[in-house]
């Protein structure tokens, strides 16, 4: 039963989401405190609550997909009514906790998250392959909570840079999952970007969004003025870190044995053709883009 609770609330994912509130607090205040932990816990509670409700809403579709068919409600180990109760309790507790920290502002933000995720995004996934774009707004909410609890304003340039990064990166992240599990999504009755754009076009679009994500990360790093000797050092460090991260994601998505692309100093270390898996060296980034 405890294991089912962690699965139905997507505890691991919810915990990862809550950490963005914690790190945003630290980035905003440069310090730690009890209110930081309470803010993180409130985000964890609301994330677990809306995730549970999401599984109640989608349990019939989950039962048709290999990736999700063993979820507690989908497989029948837990009743949908139980899921509703768990969701309501978690969301109510999160509202009480965030009210003690931010008052009605926090409650309104959590209500927006609940409505946007469960009443807008979840039904929209069944109708549009592009639901991920408005859904990506949800990724901005956890860091917004941490930022506000730290006593800062959401109008500050630093938060705008942070929010931009959290918004942009979710789109290619989801499309990489679509490339991995597009057959599963089709079985579940979800329209996918793979069917909408085609495989080749989706690869190109994902690549473009990954580049946007890298640039948003570089912008974020530059705004927060890290302790680097030169701006060139910032770019080098940012490119290296982000390319390693996204290289890992795309390697999984395309089932490759090496990094799909590592852009550093306008050079591509490796390019692998998706269909033949034959590796080739490409040294000029513009030429790489034409190949992709």
Key traits:
Four Helix Bundle (Hemerythrin (Met), subunit A); 14 helices; 3-stranded antiparallel sheet; Tetracycline Repressor, domain 2; 3 strands; disordered C terminus; mainly alpha; single chain
What does this 3D model show about the protein?
With 292 residues, the protein is mainly alpha-helical. It folds into two domains: 1-153, Orthogonal Bundle (Tetracycline Repressor, domain 2); 155-292, Up-down Bundle (Four Helix Bundle (Hemerythrin (Met), subunit A)). It has 14 helices and three strands. The chain has helices at residues 2-8, 11-29, 34-57, 59-62, 72-75, 80-102, 104-125, 132-135, 141-149, 157-187, 193-197, 199-223, 231-254, 285-291, and strands at 263-264, 267-272, 279-282. A three-stranded antiparallel sheet has the order 1-2-3. Strand 1 and strand 2 form a beta hairpin. The protein is flat, with a radius of gyration of 20 Å.
SSE layout and pairings?
Elements: H1 2-8, H2 11-29, H3 34-57, H4 59-62, H5 72-75, H6 80-102, H7 104-125, H8 132-135, H9 141-149, H10 157-187, H11 193-197, H12 199-223, H13 231-254, E1 263-264, E2 267-272, E3 279-282, H14 285-291
Antiparallel strand pairs: 1-2, 2-3
Strand order of the largest sheet: 1-2-3
Helical run tally:
14
At CATH level 3, the topology of the largest domain is Tetracycline Repressor, domain 2
User: How would the global form be characterised?
Assistant: flat
Record field, number of beta strands: 3
| Main beta-sheet strand count, sense and barrel state | 3 strands, antiparallel
Structural class: mainly alpha
| Unreliable runs | 227-236, 252-292
């Amino acid at each position: 039963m405890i294991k089912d609770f962690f699965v139905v609330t997507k505890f691991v994912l919810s915990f990862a989401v809550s950490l963005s509130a914690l790190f945003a607090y630290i980035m905003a205040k440069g310090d730690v405190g009890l209110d930081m932990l309470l803010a993180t816990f409130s985000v964890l509670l609301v994330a677990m609550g809306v995730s549970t409700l999401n599984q109640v809403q989608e349990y019939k579709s989950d039962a048709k997909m290999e990736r999700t068919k063993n979820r507690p409600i989908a497989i029948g180990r837990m009743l949908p009514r139980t899921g509703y109760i768990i969701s309501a309790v978690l969301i109510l507790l999160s509202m009480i906790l965030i009210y003690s920290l931010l008052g009605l502002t926090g409650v309104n933000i959590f209500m927006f998250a609940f409505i946007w995720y469960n009443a807008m995004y979840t039904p929209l996934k069944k109708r549009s392959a592009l639901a991920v774009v408005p859904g990506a707004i949800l990724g901005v909410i956890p860091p917004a909570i941490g930022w506000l609890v730290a006593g800062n304003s959401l109008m500050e340039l630093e938060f705008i840079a942070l929010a931009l990064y959290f918004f942009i990166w979710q789109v290619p992240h989801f499309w990489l999952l679509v490339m991995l599990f597009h057959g599963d999504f089709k079985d579940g009755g979800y329209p996918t970007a793979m069917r909408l754009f085609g495989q080749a076009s989706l690869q190109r679009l994902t690549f473009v969004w990954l580049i946007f994500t890298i640039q948003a990360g570089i912008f974020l790093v530059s705004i927060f003025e890290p302790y680097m000797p030169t701006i060139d050092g910032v770019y080098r460090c940012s490119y290296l870190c982000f390319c390693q991260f996204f290289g890992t994601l795309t390697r999984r998505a395309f089932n490759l044995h090496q990094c799909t692309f590592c852009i550093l100093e306008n050079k591509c270390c490796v390019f692998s053709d998706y269909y033949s898996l034959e590796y080739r060296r490409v040294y000029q980034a513009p030429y790489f883009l034409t190949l992709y």
